[in-house]
Amino acid sequence: xxxxxxxxxxxxxxxxxxxxxxxxxxxxxxxxxxxxxxxxxxxxxxxxxxxxxxxxxxxxxxxxxxxxxxxxxxxxxxxxxxxxxxxxxxxxxxxxxxxxxxxxxxxxxxxxxxxxxxxxxxxxxxxxxxxxxxxxxxxxxxxxxxxxxxxxxxxxxxxxxxxxxxxxxxxxxxxxxxxxxxxxxxxxxxxxxxxxxxxxxxxxxxxxxxxxxxxxxxxxxxxxxxxxxxxxxxxxxxxxxxxxxxxx
Length: 248
Known about the structure:
By secondary structure, the protein is of the alpha+beta class.
């Protein structure tokens, strides 16, 4: 007799990846297995709470759900306390102080190319007024300077950090982990919740150049809108990234 099949929930579906939830297990299917390789190794190395890897059979990676709830929601508000945001900052400090992963992140030239391509697409498709794009591009370019590389998560938006009370209970989705700029993680985490930047910095426990965090807000937003549109995430006017660019 076959066991009852639990409800299957589609958590993420785009041209690159699909994630399904079955009970307390997530099945991650990625067209690029190198990203899965990175996720597995990064989870093993990271000195912060991470999901348990249950099994891997290409192209599927199965991981256990982490306890707690997300720090925030995309296009929504966060009900997490300032202490929880500070705990996320402290977790990032532990990660950034850890030994570097052996693989590099994108080079300055690659990041600059992504920025240029993103700006050209935004202008060509009239997503935003040209003066808004120019203003943000000038700001974004200040982030493209030499930095001391650290172990970064690489895609640290607020839905990837889980909390239980005021403590971090898990950080998920490590496929973009690499060597990179610490401020990129802090910017990614606070991109749609700038009001919590001070809380995150307090938990991080060291001086942070907030102007460079804002520069990364602009760079990430200018570079990502095209991908979001082409992968079916709705109207650009609803994106947090577009709101970031308008307020810069």
